[in-house]
Every structure is written in C-alpha cells, then in structure tokens.
C-alpha cells in the first residue's frame, strides 16, 4: 500500500475538517453579533431544506473514487478514461437537476417550516445564492473523487485547505460590510467556484502525466449510472432523514431555541467530522489494495486503524463530558448551554455514530455499495418517520434518544456484522476491544472526574480557558498512560514506531558524522 498517498489522504481529510472547525470557532460568534438571532436560526433550518438539493447527487464522487482506485490497482487504463468521462457527464446532469430542485424547494420553504421568510432580512437573497453554491459544490465532490481515485491526493488536500481560508476571509469581510446572512451564502459560492477550478486543473495534470485520455462513451455512461439505482434512493431518503432533526425543530420549537441547540451541537458535530475523516482517508487505499488482491494487508490495516480510531473517539467523548459546559460558556457566553441531558445524549450519539461510520466506509471501499445503500435506505425511512412523531410528542429529548438508538442498532451493529461476513473484520479483535472498553471507560471517567474536582477547587470560576486546558491536558496524559498500560498490542505498536524513528535519526546522524 502506498503510504505517501495515505499520508496525503490524512492531510486532506483532517486538514479540511480542522480548517472548518477553525472557521466555525471564528465565525459563529461573529454570526451571533452581526446577524439577528431569529434570522440566523431560520437560516440554519432552511439551509437544511436547501441541502435537499444534494439529494440530486447519488454519490458520484464516492463511486468514482472507489471504482477508479480499484481500476488503477488492476492497471485498466482505458476503463479509467471511460469512468472519468462518465463521471463528467453524470456531474453535468447533477448540476442541472440540483439547481432545478433548489428553486422548487426555495418556493416551498415558507410552507414547510410555516414561516414567512421574506420578513427576515437578507434571507431570501442568501437562499438564492446558496442554490448556485450548492450545485457547484456537488460538482467539486466528483472532481475530488476522480483525483482521489487517481491517487492524486496532494492537490486535493492543498485545494481544500486554501478554499477554506478563502471562505473565511470572504465571510469576515462581508460580515463587517453589513451583508448579514448573505455573507455566508456568498462565501460558500466563492469557495465552490475556486475548488472546482483547482481540482479540474490538478486532474488534467495527472492525466497528462500518465498519458490517460478522458473518454466519453454513451454505452459506458448507461452502465455507469446503473450503479446508482441503489445509491440514489439511499442518498435521497438518507438526505431527507439527516435534515429532519432541524426541520422538525423549526416546526415545533422557537427559532431562538434552534440557535441554542445548534451552538451546543456544533463542537461535537465538527469533532465527529474530524475523527470520521480518518476512515474516509483509508477508503482509496483500501479500494486500490482490493483491486490488487491484497486481502491480508487490508485486514491488518482495518484492525490497526479501528483500534486507533476507537481510542480517539473514547478520549474525545470523555473530554466533552468533562469540559462541555465550560467550553460552550467560554465560546459563546453565559446562557447558551443546552443542559446536561441534551449534551450527554449528543455525546453518546457522537460515539456510536462514529463507530458505525467506520464500518460502513470500510464496506463501501471494498465494493459493498448495494448493501450499504440498502441499509441507509432502511435507516432513512425509519428515522424520518420517527423524528417527526417523536419530536412532536416528546420534543428535543425524544429526538435525541431516537437518534442514538438507531445509531447503535443499525450503524454500529449491522455494519460490523456485514464487514465480518465480507471476511475483513476480526471478531476476536472486536470482543477484545469491548472487554478493554469496559475497563478503560469507567477508569478514565473516574480519573477525569478527579481532575475536574481538583481544578474546580483551585482555579477561579471565570478562568474557563485555563481550566479547560489544564483539565484536558491532565486527562490526556492520564488516558494515554492508561491505554498503554492495558493494551499490549497498542504498546507494541508505539514501541515499534518509536524504535523506527530513533533508528532513522541514528542512521542520519551516522551519515553526517562520516
């Protein structure tokens, strides 16, 4: 497996999310100051409705990434050219359909959320700009998928990072110029246009370097779009279900309360995206290795990476549990914390959703696209129905309990069993992991609780940032020591890694001395 490509995949996936997190940390307080609270709350809710435009994309970028990477492993150059050509044709169709769908949803928004959007300053213009921005973003997903499949990861990483910097600069300037909610939409459009130009230029370079042609063929395009018979339905149903939480809240809850919920959800959501990107970064490498028939190497990679992935998820979940009230208060001020019950449910949902996401992505990368799509269809139907009726009857708490239950039963349990049946999940490892979690989680929670009591006693209540840093740092050292003590395989991995680093440094020093 190409470690250089894997490294750039990690740079792309983590870098993109980290810059998004930085942007959100900087921009959300500005949004709260520069945009009316009710307008912002409705923008968040109506943004989810316009996000239904993305349902026009049946997952072309993901399929292109998986297919092209596998074809590269098989050295099928002509088939790669045909697949890229069909990908461009599919992207053009998606752009047209998504923009048309966007205008349809635009005229229906008021009816869906039972609000007159014209009464909120700048909201109508922002929604119109968002229609074009979302359509261009869908095209960029396809171009990124082509580049990732070609193992052209470095330009994808650079393009995504610089695009996020451009988004931040544009947004800040427009906010201070007084454009309000329009600033967000215009910045999204600027980012989408930039990243499309960057990705297309990078793709042309790699195709020229490897002497590959883009081939447009009608018969191949017909075969190509047949793949999406399942994925399109999965995307449509899953997309509606994913946005139903904010939409039902917009219908049954005061818009100002939606803003409070979004503030509390956002740090967890951003961190979830950050950790989840780890599994996404593995996908092109696994698809390529599967094309070359490297079954044992894939099993070992999944075993090792799942171990690191789950420890990261446990650590972050416990950090949130210990510090979330201080974090929200330090970030946005007093009165924005949604309460322990909501936050604890968000944290539980964060953990199990991440585990299921890893398993689902591994199956997708191995070509299990139809089954992956079928389960997402099932989950989307069940969750979409339950979200509406449970939220109507039991409010936000009922919604959160429904979300975490479905994530455990469908995402985590089913996709784990499916990966095992495909022959790529070591169930002995899973049982051992569960036994370790049963020891590590309570011991970690106990240690973290002790640190929290200590710093709450010795640090003044208004020094929230200092308390978060000290508490988080102390807990990180404690958690690292605990898992290294209890997990022998992790300890061996770290020892081997450090030995390799010291050996390399020693060899370099020996050469210098000579």
Explain this structure to me?
The structure is a single chain. The chain has 514 residues and is mainly alpha-helical. It has a domain at 32-216. Helices cover 87% and strands 0% of the residues. The longest helix is centred in the last third of the chain and has 53 residues, at 369-421. The radius of gyration is 24 Å and the shape is globular. It starts with a helix and ends with a helix. The mean pLDDT is 84. It comes from Pedobacter westerhofensis. InterPro entries: Poly_Biosynth_Transport. This is Membrane protein involved in the export of O-antigen and teichoic acid.
Task: Give the overall pLDDT as a whole number.
Answer: 84
Structural category: mainly alpha
The whole-angstrom Rg is 24 Å
Give the number of DSSP strands: 0
CA(first)-CA(last) distance: 34 Å
H and E order: HHHHHHHHHHHHHHHH
- Determine the number of helices (DSSP H or I, runs of at least 4 residues): 16
Give the overall form.
globular
* Poorly predicted parts: none
The amount of beta strand, in percent, is under 5%
What is the percent of helical residues?
Answer: over 70%
Query: Major sheet, described briefly?
Result: none
Subcellular location: Cell membrane
Protein name: Membrane protein involved in the export of O-antigen and teichoic acid
Membrane topology: Multi-pass membrane protein
Organism: Pedobacter westerhofensis
